[in-house]
Amino acid sequence: MNILITSAGRRVSLIEYFRKELHDLFGLESKVLTTDLKPSLSPACRKSDEALAIGRFTDHDYIDSLLEICGEHQIKLIVPTIDTELDLLANNYEVFLSAGVEVVISSPDFVQLCSSKYTTNQFFLERGMEIARSIDRKNPTFPLFIKPVNGSSGKDLYYIRDASFISEYLKDERFIWMQYIDPADHQEYTIDLYYDREGILKCVVPRIRLRVRAGE
């Protein structure tokens, strides 16, 4: 039982946790392998049992390369770690399953729903959940918060105090304008939800968000 963690980057703790669980469940023969664009520059790859170089997820042969790695190294489980490859892996879930490999991932529809701030917000609103409201671009109220519709890793986030801070770059449709929630008035929490294979909620872990590193 070997596990492959893709785009391992700096996720050293993740590697160590999976290795401990693997060894406890299946013995020392089981391994945690990693992939990255440049494994020699990845701390997590250096900690894994074996690190393998692979192209970008946008490469036409990315899925074939992953399948080849799985076959050569007896991989039974793939754990993706970055948002950008989720859509591709979700849409190829059955391809991996037919090769005897399970990918830890949601359905393509759910991945698509979560990949856009617009569709995610609509999902919450339809269920009566209060969220930061969208701001009318033609009649904005300040302060406001601007972020990419499909963003991740905490990149391209902007606090806008007044109209003078809005550049032409931020008027692009790839950005969503939202109500600013002041951290001086509100405490931010991150909530992890753990479900079993039948979709039953097993555990909820709320954490006060003290700081963010690379969007995590």
Write the layout of secondary structure elements.
Blueprint: E1 2-5, H1 12-26, E2 32-36, H2 43-47, E3 50-53, H3 62-72, E4 75-79, H4 86-91, H5 93-98, E5 102-103, H6 108-115, H7 117-126, E6 144-148, E7 158-160, E8 175-179, E9 189-195, E10 201-208
Parallel strand pairs: 1-2, 1-4, 2-3, 4-5
Antiparallel strand pairs: 6-7, 6-8, 9-10
Helix pairs in contact: 6-7
Describe this structure in words.
Helices cover 28% and strands 22% of the residues. It has 216 residues and is of the alpha/beta class. The strands form 3 sheets. A 5-stranded parallel beta sheet has the order 3-2-1-4-5. The protein has a 3-stranded antiparallel beta sheet with strand order 7-6-8, with no helix packed on it. Strand 2 (32-36), helix 2 (43-47) and strand 3 form a beta-alpha-beta unit. The model has no long low-confidence stretch (mean pLDDT 93).
List keywords for this structure.
alpha/beta, three-stranded antiparallel beta sheet, about 20% strand, about 220 residues, five-stranded parallel beta sheet, single chain, 7 helices
**Largest beta sheet, briefly?**
5 strands, parallel
Low-confidence stretches: none
Using the CA coordinates, give the radius of gyration: 20 Å
So what's the oligomer here?
single chain
Shape: elongated
Work out the strand percent.
Answer: 15-25%
Main structural class:
alpha/beta
Count of β-strands: 10
Q: What order do the helices and strands follow?
A: EHEHEHEHHEHHEEEEE
Helix content estimate: 25-40%
Helix tally equals 7
What would you say about this model in short?
By secondary structure, the protein is of the alpha/beta class. The chain has seven helices and ten strands. Helices cover 28% and strands 22% of the residues.
